[in-house]
UniProtKB/TrEMBL annotation:
This is Acyl-CoA thioesterase. The lineage of its organism: Bacteria, Bacillati, Bacillota, Bacilli, Bacillales. Keywords: Hydrolase. Belongs to the acyl coenzyme A hydrolase family. Residues 8-120 form the HotDog ACOT-type domain. InterPro entries: Cytosol_ACT (IPR040170), HOTDOG_ACOT (IPR033120), HotDog_dom_sf (IPR029069), Thioestr_dom (IPR006683).
């Protein structure tokens, strides 16, 4: 296995038009549709980085910053920003472009974590990541703080899951 790979080796792009079936009651892109786009492209970046099967371990954040309308196209850009032993943090930048004016803005950002799996479906080591651009360097240097928050959030989620009931209301 290679020791490290450049962020650019995992970079992916996806552009889509917004159709009437893609919008919610506010006539903006349905959040669940965008989240599906995000998970899809992030999984491709993760697999390209490690050249293994990958599974989504967490969607750490999706921040919806601007509404995406039917007059817009939406472009997602993703790449691996940081790695652990078998996990990878993937950043997804969502840009909207008004197809009539050409104006572009950042509509959303997201961080996800993926784990590489071997043929036995157990976690396997992944290569490190080498940032180059200013954007990649900033995301890479701030990744350890996000990793710490993920660990704390996961611990809290496990505590909450232990507290929650699994009984059905009709039981």
């Amino acid at each position: 296995m290679e020791e490290s790979r450049y962020c650019r080796a995992s970079r992916c792009f996806k552009t889509s038009r917004i159709f009437p079936t893609d919008v919610n009651n506010h006539n903006t892109l349905f959040g669940g549709k965008l989240m599906a786009y995000i998970d899809d492209i992030a999984s491709i970046s993760a697999a390209k980085h490690c050249r293994q099967s990958v599974v989504t371990a967490s969607t750490d954040s999706v921040d919806f910053l601007q509404p995406i309308r039917p007059t817009d196209s939406v472009t997602l850009e993703s790449f691996v920003t940081w790695t652990g032993t078998s996990s990878m943090e993937v950043f997804v930048k969502v840009m909207k472009e008004d197809l009539l004016s050409g104006e572009r803005t950042i509509a959303a950002t997201s961080f996800l974590t993926f784990v590489a799996l071997g043929e036995d479906n157990r976690p396997v080591p992944v290569p490190g990541v080498i940032p180059e651009s200013e954007e990649e360097l900033k995301l890479h240097e701030t990744a350890p703080q996000r990793a710490e928050m993920r660990v704390r959030r996961r611990q809290e989620s496990k505590k909450l899951a232990d507290f929650l009931t699994i009984a059905q209301p009709w039981d």
